Amino acid sequence: MSSIGKGSFTRRPDLDGCSGVNNQTRHDGDPSEKHWATLGPAQGKGNGFVCGVSLAYVTCAPMAHSGSFRLGVLGSGRGSNFVAIAEAASRGDVSAEVATVISDVENAGILQHAKQLGIPGQFIDPGKYRTKLNEGAEQAYITALESAQVDLVVLAGFMRILKGDFLRSFEGRVINIHPSLLPSFPGLEAWKQALDYGVKHTGATVHFVDQGIDSGAIIAQETVTVLDEDTPETLLKRIQCAEHRIYPASIAAIARGEVEIKGRRTVRRVS
């Protein structure tokens, strides 16, 4: 059992279906299919980063401040990626702390997990729109994250499109995970899109959030083989296992400031 903050948890096998899988090995047994483009955010300056700009690339490193690298997690569902991140932080694999968890769904599982772990969590009403935050809600989310002094905003199954003032407030400091190998199959239910199209490989992608839909610079990807007998449910389960590996690893790398952005590419900075 690992502890975080005031709470503690044991990974639940039923939460993600990844119990017993070596985090260093592909779920389908082929290590050669793991592809990393590590990592890094932020073009510009925010609470967590100081960035130097040249004609070729942007290099960012965490700013020195009194506390640890702070994460604000937004989610709408069960929160399995949040649990994976929290577990990695408790092991010391991620040098960061989850400062706050916010959901647009009042009784979302992610808020229950946050409560169990002693991490501050809250529901903020998203307003009348189905796929985005209304203006008042957007400002409420910005205020809550700024009050928590977050260095990085982590979207973990957050089912609202973020644009405008939100992205300007956290420019280059918002990341997301998507259940496909972007740029293939952006948008909703990407695993079903992959099955319907008939691809032989799909996967998971960690990327920065920009004004488009799943179009930001790619931080990391892991490939998942599509099996002949796959259903949407079985394929999604293996993609989620990949997500739970690469999301914490990407956050850890960002927190260490290991980032060079060259055009649309992100590469590891060699110190």
Name its key features.
271 residues, Rossmann fold, disordered N terminus
Word description of this protein:
There is one protein chain. With about 270 residues, the protein is α/β, with parallel strands linked by helices. It has a single domain, classed as Rossmann fold. Helix content is about 30%, strand content about 25%. The protein is built from seven helices and 14 strands. The protein has helices at about 15, 80-90, 110-115, 135-145, 165-170, 190-195, 230-255, and strands at about 1-5, 5-10, 35, 50-55, 60, 70-75, 95-105, 120-125, 150-155, 175-180, 200-210, 220-225, 260, 265. The strands form three sheets. Strands 3-12-11-10-9-6-7-8 form an eight-stranded mixed beta sheet, with helices on both faces. Strands 4-5-13-14 form a four-stranded antiparallel beta sheet. Helix 2 packs across helix 7. The longest helix has 24 residues, at about 230-255. It is globular. The two termini are about 35 Å apart. Mean pLDDT is about 80; it is low at about 1-15 and about 20-65.
Please report which band the strand proportion falls in: under 5%, 5-15%, 15-25%, 25-35%, 35-45% or over 45%.
15-25%
Main sheet strand line-up? 3-12-11-10-9-6-7-8
Low-confidence stretches: 1-16, 19-66
The total domain count is 1
CATH level 1 class label: Alpha Beta
CATH fold group: Rossmann fold
CATH level-4 homologous superfamily: Formyl transferase, N-terminal domain
